[in-house]
Predict the structure.
Amino acid sequence: MKCLQFLYDRTLRDDYRGIHKLQHYRWNKEYIKIVLENLPKDKMLYHTQGDIYDDYKYLPQELEFCEYLAKVNKELKKINFSISDMGMRKIVFVNLQRMGFIDRFALRKNGKIEFCNIERKYQYRFVKINENGLKFLNSKDIFEEQKNLGIALDNVFSGLTQDILDILNSLQPQYISISEMMFFVTYLGKIYQGKILTKDNIVEFINEFRSLKARQKVVENVVSQYCNPKNFKGDKTNKRDFHNWKNESQTMFNNFNLMSLFEHDEKQERLLLKTTLKGEKIVFKRSSVIKEQYFKEHNLDKNLQFELHHIVPFYYAKDIDALKAIDDWKNLIYIDANSHKLFTLDKKIKNAIRLNFRDLDAVLDNLVGDEIVLKYTDNIKYKTSLQNLLVNYNKTLLGEK
């Protein structure tokens, strides 16, 4: 079976864990708000550094951070959470920085304060809530709050959120198990056998895996026994760790659960689509139906190295009507897998949701000047006579018409 061959090949690769963007941690929306609300709004907060234990004596310049932790824990206790000094700095702040809600800074020996890029290692010394964090806190209603949180989480998962929804909507029944997430979904967009793995590839793997039925457990046990760190020598790159691999997928499930359209069934370890939004029943068009309509309207045949891409993603929707408008073939473009991958690698391009055309080439921009050009037939396939229809529909979704 293709899925078993893929799984065998994957476990032999150094990047076998695939996508892992967040530190393993359980929290909820209220937890995030408490941490952000207690940060100073108009200055950086100086904090501790390195390993801190119960007997640590805070330096005078660190006392404000000590008081901050005390305030946060007092409020967290009300929702049955708590956080240590190191947990705050090494897990919570890291995750919030990846979400784009806070900025962090290092203090150089010459006294200069340096902004820290999350992709590099630093000796952090300061933290500050940023514009995105304040925007989240100042959301005018719960629906705008969910939108801001959804955008932040998708920022962490590099555009994977819409892909997850599309994969869920292609499966029957509509769920993703923890094993399916680990083994297949987290390798979406990676190179396998010389080609980029598309959503269709992942769905095919999952359907094959499900056809194993009770034998799935045998596969899981074999992978678990093989991926035991004790079986390997050398550093983390050389080792395989099933427990950490699973933790990363559980963390993804926990965080997708914070978004408006996903639900995490912890008992069965599954990610599902929610059935209601704002009290109204959600009914997504089947993925296959939208695809068929797109190909029919554009008079196209399916290409294995192209993917359907939502121009405006679902988490921009604030109500059922907006969601229905986004869930439409006129909000789709058919682009090559490599261009689709760019939307996960480049955070500026990921937010390119405004559509225009230059002659036959499509241009997507992020409303602030960054753009990606999709060459006609090479990067995008569409019916040229539909240009005006697609542009006008995109303007309607963005409130520009």
DSSP finds 16 helices and 17 strands in the chain.
